[in-house]
Amino acid sequence: MKTLAAAAMLALAPLPAMAQDHQHMDHGAMPPADPHAGHEAAGEDHSTHQQHDAAATPAPDPHAAHARPMPGAAIPQGTAPPPPADHAADAFYDPAAMARARDLMRRENGGMTFSRWMLDRLEYRTVRGADGYHWEGEGWIGGDINRLAVKTEGEGDLGGPLESAEIQALFSRAIGPWFNLEAGVRHDIRPRPQRSYAVIGIDGLAPYFFEVSAQAFLSDMGDAHLRLEGSYDQRITQRLILQPAAEANIAAQDVPELGIGSGLSDIELGLRLRYELAREFAPYVGVNWERKLGGTARLARAAGEDASVTSFVAGLRFWF
Amino acid sequence: MTEPLDHDITRRGLLMGAAGLAGLAGAGGAFPAWARSGTPGLAPSAGVLSGEAIALTVGESHFSTGGRSAHAVTVNGTLPAPLIRLKEGQNVRIAVTNRLKEDTSIHWHGLIVPFQMDGVPGVSFPGIRPGETFTYDFPVRQSGTYWYHSHSGMQEAIGHYGPIVIDPAAPDPVQATREHVIVLSDWSPIHPHMLLRRLKQNGGYFNMQRQTLAGLLAGRDQGIRERLQWGAMRMDPTDISDVTGSTYSFLVNGHGTAENWTGLFTPGERVRLRIINASAMTNFNVRLPGLPMTVVQCDGQDVQPVETDEFQIGIAETYDVVVQPPEAQAYALIAEAIDRSGQVRATLAPRIGMAAQEPPLRARPLLGMKDMGMDMTGMDHGDMAGHAMKMRDPSVAPQVAMGPGVATLSPMPADRTAARPTGLEHESHRVLTYADLKALTPNKDQRQPSRTLDIHLTANMERYMWSFDGVKLSDGTAPIAFRHMERVRVNLINDTMMPHPIHLHGHFFELVTGAGAHNPRKHTVNVLPGGKVSFDLTADALGDWAFHCHMLLHMHSGMMRVVTVRHEGEGA
Predict the structure, then answer these.
(1) Is the pLDDT of residue A31 over 80?
(2) Selection from B185, B163, B500 nearest residue B300 by Cα
(3) CATH of the domain at B98
(4) Based on the structure, what is the number of domains in chain B?
(5) Are B509 and B521 in contact (CB under 8 A)?
(6) Domains detected in chain A
(7) What is the model's pLDDT at position B39?
(8) Does B298 touch chain A (CB under 8 A)?
(9) What is the ipTM of this complex?
């Protein structure tokens, strides 16, 4: 018992100045100042201490009677003493053990790492023609301010090939109470040709509790895109939640090999009704409408696809 | 009013039996004698730890209540921990042995001890390593009701807490023929680290009383216009408690409502209840329907007796009340979570086997403008949206480090010490406020404070960030320094919409309530949402001390500081 031994040793040995004072100082239960309470208990001579204390305590204010706190009386701002550089407990315990405990205390009180991994949408889509699937998820790990974030989404036809799949790895930093700035890379595994993009974006909670995000992408081929997303959770009951969501994609140029025309290339509106069996586990049903526009729509039609697709969806939202 | 409860006793017996089996792995579901249901009270005091040498062992246990069970950390195998009963003027040596696989500690909440005996790892001592024994050794210089708990990790949330009663050296000004200790707590089978993780992931995770569309259509809660105004500010008027009855069981002496903790009395006698809120995250409204309470002590400090029907007890506060049950019937003791997500009923009865009727939970309150720190006196109430922009005006708090952790600043925080606390504003019966508390004896240091210190209680509830002045403990903060024996007016300004029970170790301070020399002395003060509290502090205890919000998860999110008291000129 190293600490015990240290404490015992210090209790016997001449103490550092502060520890000394501590024994003489006022610890009266009824605060301030019965400086004698402890001494009396210890059977010491009261009268000598009274003199001692009269000298030791700050000189009484001659105007004390007038200086009583009065309602509304102004108290000076004053100046705080400079904080000491040392740690009081180091005088009583092994400083190395104290340093370890201090580190742990700092980390435990505000410095912990957390994470959340969420598949916001994992859904089956019934469409005229071929039914399909779609996923959208995001996760983060880190502290309150700086986080590593990942985002992914993709879709395909049931029994068909994977149509699109992207993954983003981002550094996310809180830049205010409500918004995070994020920067990183995005890689599209599908469609081919595979593309990589630099990403910069903003993500957060707008007034009226709208979840919003905006991301700008610049590909390794030099093409630039913008994606805007928003959603809102309308609680119908404590567990039944209706979520309207919208997404718009804008391209700075034509990218014919990816079927994208410049300008507003597509918009997507969704309405999902989920039931939170637990906050982190919610099945849902809904409807999703996608519309390709402008050059993108022309390219789709030329490829024999519909420019507009409405699907009924059923899926699961979960996170941990 | 009463009904026989034989089936409950049987059930209790079964639980105890099951606990006995579980006890092979640890002392499961064990209660110290004073906390057992049907206790005659503190005297005779079987199972109470007294004397100059006390031994405590911190270990792993299992705890069950209301049909749920989970891992617990207990002292001497019981939840709550044993009652320590001391006498003012004695010395005590308390040897604490750690049988856990992690560090532990005990902080003596409200006890005036040398700082190196205060039990906060990293501030007052290094903590107690697994397998080690640490002996606390200090003189007992006060009397009253206090408590003790771990200051390591989150052990306090899973059972590591117990009561302390110190008898005064002089005759007790409180006359009672019987007394019971009432330890209130919250308990979840979900580990507190997971509770915090969930809140970091989703700040409203445990709130199952939010405003809904169904409520709007049924005409409940706010109207559409007000909802839009609050929405514009991204504020939720139902965000009253972080962790709620959706996961918590609320306990009296380790007993849930079904287990019906019962304290005995004889009709007509004066019964002293020493009520301690040992919760991790729950402020309670306490009442005994049909039985007025006379508050005689708060935070271990005698107060002028004041009669009331209900009071709100912040986490870590203690209130001693005297009740005089006139009839040979069962009386309910109700501790209701302030967000009304749950409550616990215990019984005061003339004999075991009675259960008082449990009143239904009252409607969940809604926060209002005052909880945003907007004192609307003399202002146009209709134009709230216009104020939305002023909810984060840095000029009202220049000292606050503005960043993601500060979502709001109270533009006009009001002193709410004379105001009824959250949710009790419109009760028809008497409700205690801090202004009703007056110290029994005048405070000894009546000097005018020589300086002022403002401390802002800051948060971003959406990100679940909590701090003082916008800075978390983990940000590498310097200690808050005081000169030895200086007298300082400390203003706590709550910039959040949640009450914060703020605790300063090693000291009592006097709440500035207008009672002058009789301002109440406290170790923990619950600062109401959007409000401010002033206290006068005589920095009479040299050393380093912890200063923090006693909402355990707020503290663990960073709402903590080290306070240091040094001789003038000792600073670097």
Answers:
(1) no
(2) B163
(3) 2.60.40.420
(4) 2
(5) yes
(6) 1-51 (no CATH), 114-319 (2.40.160.40)
(7) 78
(8) no
(9) 0.90
